[in-house]
Amino acid sequence: MALTTAACDAAPPLLGEIPAASRTPTVSAPARSTAAYRLSPEKYAKAVAYSRGQYRLHFLGEAWEILVLLALIAAGVAPKFRDLAGRVSANRFVQALVFVPLFLIVWQILELPVAAWGHHLSLAYDQSVQGWGSWFWDWCKAELVGVLILTPLLWLLYRILAKSPRRWWFYFWLATLPVIVFVVFIAPVVIDPLFFHFEPLAGKAPDLVTEIEKVTRRGGLSIPRDRMFLMAASRKLKSVNAYVTGFGASKRVVVWDTTLARMTVPQTLFVFGHEMGHYVLGHVPKTIAFVSGLLLAVLFLAHLALRSALPPDRGHWRIRGLTDWASLPVLALMLSVASELCSPAINSFSRAQEHAADVYGLEVVHGLIPDSRRAATQSFQILGEINLADPSPGRFVRFWLYSHPPLAERISFAQTYDPWSKGERPRYIRDGATP
Fold it and tell me: What pLDDT does 413 receive?
């Protein structure tokens, strides 16, 4: 995982595993597919091919990143940039302004073929309508956002390293916590608009706004109309989505224009109810806490590994020790490997939350729309057709890559979840409100 963030993916379709394609009427899929999730034979084959392409892209992309970092270390690129930064100024912050952008830009340019391959897959499988020029401009903006965030953060890291070489991993971890919260707060109002156009939802779909207000009121979530927006996703994507983002003063409802075009109001309300569930059930702070805990463990292990890889009395790869700017690619390599190894744990945690949000979505719209189970099933089916979701992902792929339960399982659950007719108490929405 690169240090830079793909800000253009700040609002991914959280209800699906794979990005997007055109909708066609559904018929029974081949026997291998779960009965609850149906695709035409042509679309079934296309979904399998696209999914396999994305799986290969992920693992080959991780291998490529490791090779790139090893090549940068072997070629001594970081020491050259360090020497240049030292000639520019003796001030460490000024050195950071020189070294960090240079290194990150070179690194990400070398990673560009993997990103381009991903966009090629999206175009080849009708997931994207974004031209290459527009895509490359988004890539540049995403890298610029990453540089702006990471330059002061890495300056702080190396300042902490110099002050406390034995406890740097803990103090830097503490420093990242407010940064994570700050980025989550500003993303809806500063980062997302760099990549998509937003306008008031009430101007385009006033009836939908009225229905969304009923759902938020039932869930105890207060979001005024002027914080409900329509996002022009159709200029770049074919995915559908509706979600709640930000917190405090930046909290808002976002509905994609593709959702208005492809889904009915009841279907859209279920999608929104699912996303609202993440907020009402506290998934945002829980996820931050979980990932932060993993980060603490990773930083500690990186500290132990770096002490062995970069002893202060030796100058491996022209690196003068852990506090040297030139140690950054070694640290990045360790964090990249650790990030990939943590993927199963993070995705397992995410799948549990996504299932809980499915339950919440079914319950919060129950009684507000004619048949919540039917609306949910239809929403998942439409999503699978558009996103070309894998009809039958293997166990290893689900374990390692899936942040959501497979779509067939979610459809099956939506069709059978009915505590009301069984005289049972719903899990989250009782007596018309969240407990």
Answer: 95
CA distance 86 to 98: 9
Q: Could you tell me the sign of the dihedral formed by the alpha carbons of 144, 149, 150, 156, in that order?
A: positive
Judged by average pLDDT, the poorest of 122-136, 137-151, 175-189 is 175-189
Q: DSSP letter string over 324-372?
A: SGGGHHHHHHHHHHHHHHHHHHHHHHHHHHHHHHHHHHHHHTBTTBS-H
The closest of 311, 251, 310 to 278, measured between CA atoms, is: 251
Mean pLDDT of the 358-375 span: 94
For tokens 């990143």, the residue is 65
- 16 or 71: which leads in pLDDT: 71
The rounded Cα 177 to chain-centroid distance in angstroms is 18
Contact 259, 272 (CB under 8 A): no
The torsion defined by the Cα of 300, 301, 302 and 306, in degrees rounded to 10, comes to: 110
Backbone angles phi, psi at 430, to 5 degrees: -120, 135
Residue 253 three-state SS: strand
Give the closest residue to 5 by CA, choosing from 117, 203, 153.
Answer: 153
The number of C-alpha atoms within 13 Å of 220 and in the hemisphere containing its C-beta is 14
pLDDT score recorded for residue 315: 61
Distance CA 157, CA 171 (A): 9
Distance between CA atoms of residues 352 and 392, nearest Å: 19
Residue with tokens 């993997």: 114
Q: CA 324 to CA 304: how far, in whole Å? A: 17
Query: Which of 15-24, 229-238, 295-304 comes out lowest in average pLDDT?
Result: 15-24
Mean pLDDT of the chain, nearest integer: 88
The kind and range of the H/E element at 200 are strand 198-200
Q: How many Å apart are CA 321 and CA 235, to the nearest integer?
A: 48
- The answer to whether residues 240 and 248 touch, using CB atoms and an 8 Å cutoff, is no
CA distances from 50 to 39, 57, 118, 125, 387 (A): 14, 10, 11, 7, 10
Q: Compute the average pLDDT of residues 231-244.
A: 90
CA–CA gap between residue 240 and residue 16 (Å, rounded): 9
Q: How large is the C-alpha radius of gyration of the chain?
A: 23
Within its chain, how far is the Cα of 329 from the centroid?
Answer: 24
**pTM (whole model) above 0.90:** no
Where residue 174 falls among pLDDT bands split at 50, 70, 90?
very high
